[in-house]
Design brief:
alpha/beta; 6-stranded mixed beta sheet; 7 helices
Length: about 270
């Protein structure tokens, strides 16, 4: 199968976000991608909590989400909206990954479990839990003949989630992200390759990149990694663009037979 990873620099409104993403998604589809993936925060990139909540809408009323669903239907492709910042039915916010089928229907949704609550050595401070309600379940879904395991950004630091997704049948693990520049430079590639090797799975990680309207800077360097941990393709910088990658799903079985770590794991008592 052929996949397209779309690297974005998402603006601070849904209308502008849709205008930004659409030509790149069209480019991926024209390149023959069966499955196209966008990064975290594909519908809205806004760090100011008050301004964020002014714009939040339920998925069915979000201009970018609705437009991306229509675009998937027009192009006849599978589209993973890496995540959209949306308002839940209870009024709280969710950082939600949504899988769209070629008819434009949402076939699976995953709310980011792990909240990015950190104080970086650079002085940057993030409290994602102040804005978003975390999810509480892992999600696998089928798209374009492959089984996907869904995750979002900071989830990448919690290997138990990826093991659970792989044990649940996932052949491709998706990690749409908006890594900061300090953490991206230090850990991005290492974490992606480690999760691929540990689970014998493909990792697809479309990323936000560049300096955004709210002043935050993200790392970019979208990447696809094989089940053996080999980097299949990577963006060279943080500029918006498209990566097209051919995946041979037989490599998943080959890697897991060679290193059967999923089956060899044992329960153990704590220290």
């Amino acid at each position: 199968m052929k996949v397209g990873l779309v690297q974005l620099r998402t603006p601070a409104s849904q209308a502008a976000a849709l205008r930004h993403a659409e030509p790149l998604i069209r480019q991926a589809a024209s390149g023959g991608a069966d499955l196209i993936l966008t990064p975290e925060s594909s519908n809205l990139f806004q760090g100011n909590r008050a301004r964020l909540f002014e714009r939040l809408a339920p998925p069915e009323a979000d201009e970018a989400v609705v437009g991306l669903r229509a675009l998937a239907a027009e192009l006849g492709v599978w589209l993973l909206i890496g995540s959209a910042m949306v308002r839940r039915e209870d009024g709280k916010a969710a950082n939600r990954s949504m899988l769209i089928d070629p008819a434009g229907a949402v076939t699976a949704a995953y709310d980011k479990i792990h909240m990015f609550d950190v104080d970086l050595p650079t002085g940057e401070r993030y409290r994602e839990s102040a804005s978003y309600e975390p999810g509480d379940r892992a999600v696998v879904a089928t798209a374009a003949g492959a089984v996907l395991g869904l995750s979002v950004c900071y989830d990448l630091r919690f290997p138990a989630l990826y093991r659970a997704l792989a044990r649940g049948g996932a052949e491709i693990l998706t990690a749409p992200s908006a890594f900061t520049r300090p953490t991206g430079a230090a850990h991005w590639e290492l974490l992606l390759r480690a999760r691929a090797i540990e689970t014998g799975s493909f990792i697809l990680a479309p990323a936000q990149g560049g300096t955004h309207e709210d002043g935050r800077a993200t790392w970019g360097r979208s990447m696809a990694v094989s089940p053996w941990g080999r980097v299949l393709a990577a963006s060279a910088d943080d500029a918006p663009g498209v990566l097209l990658v051919d995946l041979d799903l037989a490599q998943v079985g080959e890697a897991r037979r060679a290193i059967p770590a999923l089956g060899n794991a044992r329960a153990f008592a704590g220290p």
